[in-house]
């Protein structure tokens, strides 16, 4: 590839995947006439062909340790319609507990949202997986998994979201109180952000564990007095049915209260979907995942 086309391809790839510009607009910024619509994708394909196969080798970069997981639905062009594909992201961010490993984000694409995909992505990996309550991750934590079951940790931000929506929409007193109690736990956590795991664990045992115990006892008492069909009871049961994963951070100073780092890694993609609307094929989705992984890694 000649130097000038290579520079233009890099410019267009950066515009699409980093700055969230459409390809037509990137050509305009570069002072070049935009080619016909049917030739826009091939102009970018050369630039993303290299990272795609190499992204398969990026998973060992995470090592053994904490990993935050999330994902985002993406439309994928099919015959006469679009289908719902998935961009999965796996994030390593050790800064909350004073770790020295650099942050990293690894994206993978799949045609659907089946649980077999994260099982395949994380083959051979062990550590802490913090996520929402998506059942597809359950296989990773089953006894007998090799080399070892992952340690599942719940995301308090996801649990809080259901109660917050009810509190904001319906002004339900129990939901408002629940959000206040959860916010007190988040506030206590902010005081130990960035400190070593040992210090985080000590503070949690003395200051935060009583708040968590009181919250769960109060939620159980509230649910006993409400119908299971009550929206507030449903939101509280999200916590109660998964008490073991939501309280795991009290026994390990490396675990965060939420997987917001993984959610933040998806923000640029969510904002940039208007620039490309849909992936043109499964290969296009895989290339996009590789480019997002490449552009999101920070030294």
Distance between the termini: 28 Å
State which percent range the strand residues make up.
Answer: 5-15%
Biggest pleated sheet: 5 strands, mixed
Major beta sheet, strand line-up: 3-2-1-4-5
Element order: H for helix, E for strand:
HHHHEEEHEEHHHHHHH
Radius of gyration: 22 Å
**Shape descriptor:** globular
Low-confidence stretches: none
The count of β-strands is 5
Structural description of this entry:
- With 299 residues, the protein is α/β, with parallel strands linked by helices.
- It has 12 helices and 5 strands.
- It has a 5-stranded mixed β-sheet with strand order 3-2-1-4-5.
- The longest helix is centred in the C-terminal third of the chain and has 28 residues.
- The radius of gyration is 22 Å and the shape is globular.
- The two termini are 28 Å apart.
Short descriptors:
five-stranded mixed sheet; alpha/beta; 12 helices; 299 residues; 5 strands; 14% strand; globular
Secondary structure layout:
Layout: H1 3-17, H2 23-29, H3 40-48, H4 51-54, E1 65-78, E2 81-92, E3 104-110, H5 116-121, E4 127-131, E5 151-154, H6 156-170, H7 173-190, H8 197-224, H9 231-240, H10 243-246, H11 260-276, H12 282-296
Parallel strand pairs: 1-4, 4-5
Antiparallel strand pairs: 1-2, 2-3
